[in-house]
Please model this.
Amino acid sequence: MDISDLEIFRAVVESGGISRAAERLHRVPSNVTTRIRQLEEDIGVQLFLREGNRLKISPAGEVLLGYSKQILELTIETLEALQDPTPRGRLCIGTMNSTAAVRLPAPLAEYHRKFPQVKLEIRSGSTRTLMTEVLSGVLETALVADPVPDARLGMVKIFKDELVIVAEPGHEKITTPSDCAGDTLLVFGEGCAYRKRFEEWFSDSHVFPDRIIEIDSYHAMLGCVVAGMGIALLPRNILESLPEHSRVSVHKLSRKWNLSTTCIIWRKESKSSRVDAFENVLLNSLK
Model:
């Protein structure tokens, strides 16, 4: 059963017979008759009661007629939506916690104001998780840090963040991994781009931290730094937004390590007008 079968069936019912339906559809009557019989065979029920040369819709046909009207109307609505460039529908956006907290509120408010027909949904996660969910179709787009290039993904750079090391007050100056080799690293779980950067900073100098502890929020992470549990790497703008920021020492990284690039990503073959509009809002927010 396809859309054209339902159109023919509906035309026969509304026209009152095969001949009139054929005229309406610009088909020959034999073609209409064949298609109706094929439709009945496909779905396994009789759609019309045949009384001589007259057709009367059957109870099963009445049921199909109601559904066919809904299906055909929804088909027209779908085609109009696809041909209309105005963003509409559901947009599920993935983002890192840091981006959601500091960078996204204003652009999301602007997007909602410009495109009220779009229902926004936000999911947070690590860069690795978000990339996987975009590729699998769970997310339509995501904002990720330092993404690994993937031929299946389109991506555009949106902004850069300065990364800094934070330690307890009075910690000796940190300029190289050797200055904090005995410290515990406070990091997010596997898949976090900032954790990966921190670990690479150590391994590049063939120095390894004493211990790694995973923490699931920046507030808790900074509280642990203040308490002297260890050191952490985080974006400066996140640090400055937290109440405890004045109670830690801040240490700059060298140019090779101190900037992280956040990109918007999407599957290349399925970029929608919703994602295009979101990308434009993000880029315009930086001007």
Observations:
- The domain at 160-259 is CATH 3.40.190.10 (D-Maltodextrin-Binding Protein; domain 2).
- The first helix runs from residue 3 to 15.
- The mean pLDDT is 91.
